[in-house]
Design brief:
23 strands; Arc Repressor Mutant, subunit A; disordered N terminus; 6-stranded mixed β-sheet; 7-stranded antiparallel β-sheet; alpha/beta; Rossmann fold
C-alpha cells in the first residue's frame, strides 16, 4: 500500500510488531488512549467496545483500524476476547534529484487508506486465516524479514480491496446499534419495541431480521449477555443467586436459574460450587484428558465408541455395565459429547448432565470444560503452553525436513484411511500449525479418504506415520510387511506405500483433542524426525 502524497513522495506502511493478546473481564473496564497505528483482528470472544464515543458490539472475525489519539474502552464478556494486534509503522519515502530518503510519516492522513474504526469487509475469516499464518511465520523468524513485510503489503491490499464490497447479509448499522444497546443496558428492562426502533424496523421485521443474522431471537441474545455477566458475579464472594439475577436484569430468580442452566449446563448454585464438584465424562473426544490438564481427575470415564463400537450398536449389557460404573462413582454432574446422546436420558437419571456441542477446534471444547470446573485460568495456561510448543516444533521440523512430504495413515477392519488436511484437530496440527507439506495422496480440505486394503493407490511420501487402530500386528515389522505386501487383490506384486521413512504412531487421531494429547503427538513427531 503506497499511496502518493505528491509526484516524488510515497507512504510505505511497515509491520513493527505482531502480537496475540487476550483481554479478560475485570471489575474496571479497560480504557486507554491509542498511541500508535494498530490493526486489530478479533479471533474469538465477545464484548463491548467504546471507540471515540461510538459503541461497537465485538464479535469474532471483526477487524478494526485504530489511529493515534483515539479513546477506547473495552468490556470483554466472560471468557475474554482473543485478538491479533499489528503495530504499523508509516514511513515517508521521498525521491529528490535522483536520490531516495526515508523518514517517519507522522500523523498525515494519507499514509493509510483504511478508514478508522470497524472495517466492513467481505471474507474476514479468510483474511484472519492468512494473518494466523503470518503470525506463525513471524514467531518462527523475525518481523524484519523482507518476505514477511511483503506478505503484510498483500494483506493490507486485500483488506482495502474488500472494503468496497458488502455482503447482502451484513448487519446493518441499525442492527449493530440495537446490539450495542443490549450490551450497554443489559441490567435494565429492555423492550422489543425499543430495540426495533433503534434498528429502524417494526418489531416483527426486526425479530425476523435479527434471527436471520444472529441465529437467535433478540431476547435470546439479550439473555446470553445477561447470563455471561452473571457468571462474573457468581464467582464473587457473598453473592446470592437472587442478587445476581437482579443485577443483570432478570426480574425473576427462577426464570434466571432456568435460563442459566439452559445456557451453561449447570444451575447457578452448582456453578458457584463447581471447583469442588465431582465430575464424570461420557465422551469419545478425550474430555478426561482436557480435565486432567487443568488438574481435575474425573471420577468415571465412559467411551461408548471405544474400539469402533457405536453406542447405538452396543449390547444392552455393555450399556448397563458402563452406566452402573458411573452411578457407583457418584458424580455431582456429568459431561457428555454428542455421540453419547442415545444414553443422555440414562445419564440424567444418575446426575445433571451437560451435553457439549461438537466443534473441530479442541481449544473451544477445552475452555468450555475448564469453565464447568472453575479452571478457566489453568485452561488458558495450558493452551499457551501448547501453542508455544507448536511454534518451537515448527522451527525444528522446518530445519530437519523442509520441503519433504508427510502422510498419516490409519489401518482398521481391512481398510486404510488416509487423513487429510482439514476438519480434524490432528490434520490442523500437522498441516496448518506445524506447516508440514502433505504428499500428493493426502486429500485436501477434507478429513480423510478411505480405501479397502487392495484398492489403496500408490502413496509416495518422504515420511509416513501409520496407526494400527485394532492393534492386530504384534510389532512394527508385521505392519510394515502388510503395507509392503499389498492387498490380496492388488495383482501388482508391490505394496501400496513408497516411503523411505515409515513409522508406527500412537493414536494421534484421538490424542489431538486435548492439550496432553497435543504434547504427546509433538513428542512422538520430534523424536521420529530429529
Amino acid at each position: 500500500m503506497m499511496p502518493s502524497y505528491q509526484a516524488s513522495e510515497y507512504a510505505l506502511v511497515l509491520l513493527s510488531s505482531l502480537r496475540k493478546r487476550i483481554s479478560r473481564p475485570s471489575p474496571a473496564s479497560l480504557r486507554r488512549t491509542i498511541r500508535g497505528n494498530l490493526l486489530i483482528f478479533v479471533e474469538r470472544g465477545k464484548g463491548l467496545l467504546r471507540l471515540d464515543g461510538q459503541v461497537i458490539a465485538v464479535q469474532p472475525e471483526q477487524i478494526l483500524y485504530l489511529r493515534p489519539g483515539m479513546q477506547v474502552e473495552l468490556v470483554p464478556e466472560p471468557g475474554g476476547i482473543a485478538y491479533y494486534m499489528l503495530t504499523l509503522r508509516p514511513l515517508l519515502v521521498d525521491r529528490r534529484r535522483g536520490s531516495w530518503s526515508c523518514s517517519p510519516a507522522g500523523e498525515r492522513d494519507a499514509f493509510c487508506r483504511l478508514p478508522p474504526g470497524l472495517l466492513k469487509t467481505v471474507g474476514a475469516g479468510t483474511i484472519l486465516r492468512q494473518l494466523e499464518r503470518l503470525y506463525q511465520a513471524v514467531r518462527a523468524s523475525s518481523v524484519r524479514e523482507p518476505a514477511l513485510q511483503l506478505r503484510l503489503q498483500g494483506l493490507l491490499q486485500q483488506l482495502e480491496d474488500r472494503l468496497s464490497v458488502r455482503k447482502e447479509a451484513e448487519e446493518p448499522d441499525g442492527m449493530e446499534r440495537s446490539m450495542a444497546y443490549m450490551h450497554a443496558n443489559y441490567s435494565e428492562r429492555i423492550k422489543l419495541e425499543t430495540l426495533s426502533a433503534l434498528a429502524g424496523l417494526t418489531p416483527t421485521s426486526y425479530s425476523r431480521s435479527f434471527k436471520k443474522i444472529r441465529g437467535v431471537s433478540p431476547m435470546e441474545y439479550l439473555n446470553v449477555i445477561r447470563i455471561n455477566h452473571s457468571k462474573r458475579l457468581l464467582d464473587g464472594e457473598h453473592v446470592s443467586v437472587k442478587s445476581a439475577s437482579q443485577s443483570v436484569g432478570f426480574g425473576n430468580e427462577f426464570y434466571f436459574s432456568r435460563m442459566f442452566k439452559r445456557e451453561v449446563g449447570l444451575s447457578p448454585y452448582m456453578y458457584m460450587q463447581r471447583r469442588q464438584l465431582r465430575v464424570a465424562v461420557a465422551c469419545s473426544f478425550r474430555y478426561e484428558d482436557c480435565l486432567r490438564s487443568v488438574g481435575v481427575e474425573p471420577v468415571a470415564v465412559m467411551n461408548g465408541q471405544e474400539r469402533g463400537c457405536r453406542i447405538e450398536e452396543e449390547s444392552t449389557a455393555f450399556i448397563h455395565r458402563e452406566l452402573q460404573r458411573i452411578r457407583q462413582a457418584r458424580p455431582d454432574f456429568i459431561v457428555a459429547d454428542y455421540r453419547h446422546r442415545p444414553v443422555y436420558e440414562q445419564l440424567k437419571e444418575i446426575a445433571p448432565t451437560v451435553l457439549l456441542a461438537y466443534t473441530e477446534d479442541w481449544r473451544i471444547t477445552h475452555r468450555k470444560l475448564a469453565e464447568l470446573v472453575g479452571r478457566e485460568d489453568e485452561a488458558e495456561r495450558t493452551i499457551e503452553q501448547v501453542e508455544r510448543r507448536i511454534r518451537e516444533a515448527r522451527g525444528l521440523l522446518r530445519s530437519a525436513c523442509d520441503s519433504e512430504t508427510f502422510c498419516f495413515m490409519r489401518l482398521y477392519d481391512g481398510k486404510v484411511r488416509v487423513h487429510g488436511t482439514a476438519e480434524h484437530p490432528m490434520n490442523a496440527l500437522l498441516y496448518t500449525e506445524l506447516g508440514l507439506k502433505p504428499c500428493f495422496r493426502v486429500p485436501l480440505n477434507t478429513a480423510y479418504k478411505e480405501f479397502t486394503f487392495d484398492q489403496v493407490p500408490l502413496i509416495d511420501t518422504d515420511h509416513l506415520y501409520v496407526y494400527d487402530y485394532l492393534e492386530q500386528a504384534e510389532d512394527e515389522e508385521e505392519v510394515l510387511d502388510r503395507l509392503a505386501a499389498g492387498g490380496s487383490g492388488s495383482g501388482s506384486g508391490r505394496g501400496p506405500v513408497c516411503s523411505p521413512r515409515i513409522r508406527l504412531a500412537s493414536n494421534w487421531v484421538g490424542q489431538s483433542w486435548s492439550p496432553l494429547g497435543q504434547h504427546r503427538i509433538l513428542d512422538e513427531l520430534l523424536q521420529g524426525e530429529l
